[in-house]
Design goal:
Radius of gyration: 24 Å
CATH superfamily of the largest domain: Periplasmic binding protein-like II
Number of strands: 22
Number of helices: 12
Oligomer: single chain
Strand content: 15-25%
Length: 535
């Protein structure tokens, strides 16, 4: 699944309520969880996006918290690594090229079969297999081999040291036997998965809902509730209306819509810190945006603070690059004015020969300073950001045409038209940025769709991967951020706070700093197996 892909069909109320009853009927009677609590019904959550597959090998929940699967490691409420299927955190050899994991004993897949090292080996070998359409392969290009010297031990051998490798071991493990004689790309497993996680899938209606039942034999203790229903509702306003109608126990909503729930007695609003940024991807192949002066002018002209205040309702902060300010790798010199600097923007355009015409729109060599700015039509937040950019650009003589489209319509136009995009991770800076800005990924779907190329950026990103010394890594990522700021392949706008509305009948919610996500994993419900819903 592309990280920017969402679906558009919503859930009918009777169908959803019927599924909730089915979950209750399909689960054993509620019994005390490992914490001594008693679950009182399935939790119903609503999200904007939906995965294309439920197979971790094909990029479902690669950073963990997928609910259906476990990795060798997981992340706690502070996003620190903790053991999961591994009995303890994997060990790294002195030369950084051998990583060894010892498996937890007694772990069962949902079908009752035992987890062994063979399953771990198969999972990682499948990602590396060129016949498998896994977008994760480049994430593991440092992996030379993975082997199982015995059923309880897995040894990863790397081609070269890779500092964040243990973080990559959050990938969910799949059972090898489920794929015997099958093409991983088309396996039935992709829609009917078997994992070791706290929930097992009972049904998935594409564009509608995913129904999960508690894994009674979960190694981490029985979940505190009998199941979870994930409703896929792409339209923000519809999701808010249905949350207000009481259909959901929790829903992700844009800040402005979430604010409408402030002060209500039956629900509470959670504003969760994130590393999730929004920005305008500027394609290098566009005849106007290919001009560095235009890109730099747009960077200076946008009023980020006004966007935070007006569009986000204060739930965010100005963004100037892809490494969040909370990261130890953030480069402090990469910043700017939160408000618009129209004088600097117009000076850049004047110097580059873009002169205003009778209508106020600039032109150069007979070409107007005009371009299309796409956004997903169902995303109200991105629509408002697109309109704000349009207004700011007009003030410096650049004509922007905002266009709300489906993702199917957006995808083929990304090489030539600008797009309001979202990405970001609170984990290692190698994650996301290596693909999003690396030349090797130019024009490959949602990774580097604008075909940005920089030898300096490529070298810095590679150095950040190759070095295990923290100081060397910080220097590499400083160079990366500085060059990106000079080239402006994106106009970064804001970092978000993710906003959720949760009913007061739900307990156990534990927010943590979130990445950019669109579906089930790593949202507020990362620990939904600890939630309880009171009747």
């Amino acid at each position: 699944m592309s990280p920017e892909h969402v679906t558009s069909r919503s859930v009918r109320v009777p169908a959803l309520l019927g599924i909730v009853l089915a979950v209750v009927a399909g689960c054993a009677s509620p019994t005390p969880s490992s914490t001594g609590r008693t679950g009182n019904g399935p939790v119903v959550v609503a999200t904007a996006g939906e995965p294309d597959t439920l197979n971790p090998v094909l990029n479902y929940g690669p950073d963990g918290a997928s609910l259906i699967f476990d990795g060798l490691v997981a992340r706690d409420a502070r996003n620190q690594l903790v053991p999961a299927l591994a009995r303890e955190l994997p060990t790294v050899s002195a030369d950084g090229r051998t990583v060894t994991a010892t498996l937890r004993e007694g772990v069962l897949f949902h079908d009752g079969s035992p987890l062994t090292a063979r399953d771990v080996v198969f999972t990682y070998q499948a990602v590396l297999d060129p016949k498998v359409d896994s977008t994760l392969r480049s994430d593991l290009d440092m992996l030379a081999s993975v082997a199982a010297p015995d059923p309880g031990t897995v040894v990863f051998t790397l081609k070269h040291p890779y500092a964040p490798f243990v973080q990559r071991l959050a990938l969910g493990i799949v059972p090898a036997k489920a794929f015997e004689g099958q093409d991983v790309n088309r396996a039935e497993f992709n829609r009917r998965p078997i994992g070791t996680g706290p929930y097992r899938m009972t049904s998935w209606t594409p564009g509608d809902r995913l129904v999960l039942a508690a894994n009674e034999r979960y190694w981490g203790g029985r979940p505190a509730n009998p199941g979870v229903v994930v409703a896929f509702v792409a339209d923000d306003n519809v999701r808010a209306q249905r949350m207000r109608a009481g259909e959901f126990d929790a829903a992700e909503l844009p800040p402005k819509l979430a604010t409408g729930f402030d002060g209500q007695t039956a629900q509470r609003v959670h504003k969760v810190p994130t590393a999730d940024y929004r920005g305008v991807m500027l394609p290098m192949g566009n005849p106007v945006l290919g001009d560095l002066a235009v890109r730099r002018a747009l960077h200076a002209a946008v009023d980020r603070q006004a966007m935070v205040t007006g569009v986000l309702g204060g739930a965010g902060e100005p963004a100037f690059g892809p490494v969040p300010p909370t990261s130890e790798f953030a480069e402090p010199s990469v910043t700017g004015r939160p408000t618009a600097d129209r004088a600097a923007a117009t000076a850049l355009l004047d110097a580059a020969g873009w002169t205003p015409g009778p209508d106020g729109i600039r032109a150069k060599a007979g070409r107007q300073a005009a371009f299309t700015l796409m956004y997903p039509a169902t995303d109200s937040l991105r629509k408002e950001l697109a309109l704000a950019v349009t207004a700011d650009a007009r003030k410096i003589g650049i004509a922007v045409t905002p266009q709300g489209l489906t993702w199917d319509a957006i995808t083929p136009q990304m090489k030539t038209d600008a797009l309001v995009m979202g990405y970001g991770t609170p984990y290692d800076p190698d994650f996301v940025s290596f693909k999003l800005f690396g030349s090797a990924f130019a024009g490959q779907g949602f990774f580097n769709p604008g075909s940005y190329r920089s030898a300096t950026v490529d070298a810095a990103l590679q150095a950040g991967r190759d070095n295990t010394d923290p100081a060397a890594r910080r220097a590499a990522y400083a160079t990366f951020q500085q060059q990106l700021a000079a080239d402006v392949p994106w106009v970064f706008l804001t970092y978000l706070q993710h906003t959720y509305v949760v009913r007061d009948t739900v307990t156990g919610v534990t927010p943590r700093v979130e990445p950019h996500e669109h579906d089930v994993a790593n949202s507020l419900w990362w620990n939904v197996h600890t939630w309880e819903k009171k009747s």
